[in-house]
Design goal:
- It is a single chain.
- By secondary structure, this protein is an alpha+beta fold.
- The protein has two domains: 3-37 and 126-324, no CATH class; 53-121, no CATH class.
- 51% of the residues lie in helices and 14% in strands.
- It contains eight helices and twelve strands.
- It has a five-stranded antiparallel beta sheet.
- The longest helix has 33 residues, at 128-160.
- Residues 1-15 and 17-40 have low confidence and may be disordered.
């Protein structure tokens, strides 16, 4: 039989989130470390890249001062996926197209010159972080569309099967992790879009010199990377908590509903970031609604008569399967 339980909502919530608060506090204290690379260049001689364009034509002859570009010289073609290294850089001020030329080498027999502008538009740094950023920038809408469709199909399956599914925001589990995951994702999306829109040179510098250490970056990038690490921690904690509270099948469907909410949240705040005033107000309201909703719905009024776990409503216990009436 279910038994009434007087629950203290906020102390319980704070106790569950205590390890995460400690992580956030450490991150905020250490983000004051700022690396001094104001004059850092995007790339230099010896840096390695991967060709991301279908092909690239290099000029075999060295460009010369006060002479027009030799359109009749031999052209060397490199193809998609070919590794390239910056062998030399040359500045020709009188070149009206681009004053900076870059000599690229595929191997000791395949090398040539190209304008820096064309070079930067056709390559990706040979670093897994940069390559992930490039892939995410090019394909994230496609990935989001697939993920959202899968989430929607899973939700419709539960509705038409006449079950009472656990769905994020509608019929939630007793855990603060999904709520804090969504709040952190919104903050991360807001920072990501804001950096790219308002300080693109800072993001470009990070793209060519990536790192997973948030404590050697400018403050805004450091804060963004902290939110990314916190997202990873929260995603693991959320998955573990959902799998602990729900059977495998229901856990998968709940996580899919959470994925759909995350996709919508990301798209909403990346678009909202284009208008700073609106985005900050929207984010504050978003956080307020989620926190108030969690504090109201997380009150567990019952205990399972079999295992003693807290229950928000009578019925089948998600922990042991016993019926509570």
């Amino acid at each position: 039989m279910g038994r009434s339980e007087q629950t203290r909502q906020f102390p319980d919530m704070m106790l569950q989130m205590k390890p995460l608060f400690a992580i956030v506090a450490c991150m905020l204290l250490l983000t004051s470390c700022y690396y001094q690379e104001e004059d850092a260049t995007l790339f230099e001689v010896g840096d390695n890249f991967i060709l991301s364009a279908d092909s690239l034509k290099l000029q075999s002859n060295r460009p010369l001062h006060n002479l027009p570009v030799d359109t009749l010289c031999e052209r060397i073609t490199v193809c998609l996926g070919d590794p390239l290294v910056v062998a030399e850089m040359l500045v020709i001020p009188e070149d009206t197209t681009d004053s900076v030329w870059v000599k690229l080498a595929h191997d000791q027999f395949t090398m040539g010159w190209i304008h820096q502008r064309d070079f930067m538009a056709s390559v990706v740094p040979d670093d897994p972080i940069s390559q992930f950023i490039h892939l995410f920038s090019m394909r994230h809408l496609w990935f989001f569309a697939v993920g959202f469709v899968i989430s929607l199909v899973a939700l419709l399956f539960q509705v038409f099967s006449r079950r009472q599914p656990h769905v994020f925001f509608l019929r939630d589990i007793l855990s603060p992790y999904p709520t804090f995951l969504l709040i952190t994702l919104a903050a991360s999306a807001l920072l990501y879009a804001g950096i790219q829109h308002y300080v693109p040179e800072t993001w470009l510098l990070y793209y060519y010199h990536p790192t997973l250490n948030p404590f050697v970056l400018p403050p805004v990038l450091s804060l963004f990377l902290c939110t990314v690490w916190l997202l990873l921690v929260l995603a693991i904690a959320t998955t573990d908590e959902v799998c602990r509270q729900l059977p495998t099948g229901e856990a998968v469907l709940y996580l899919l509903s959470l994925l759909g909410c995350c996709i919508l949240c990301y798209l909403l705040f990346t678009l909202a970031a284009l208008s700073p005033g609106i985005s900050y107000i929207l984010f504050a309201l978003f956080v307020l609604v989620l926190v108030l909703r969690y504090s109201r719905r997380s009150k567990a009024r019952y205990l399972c008569g079999s295992c003693g776990k807290r229950l928000r409503e009578l019925g089948k216990c998600p922990y042991c399967g016993a019926e509570n009436r």
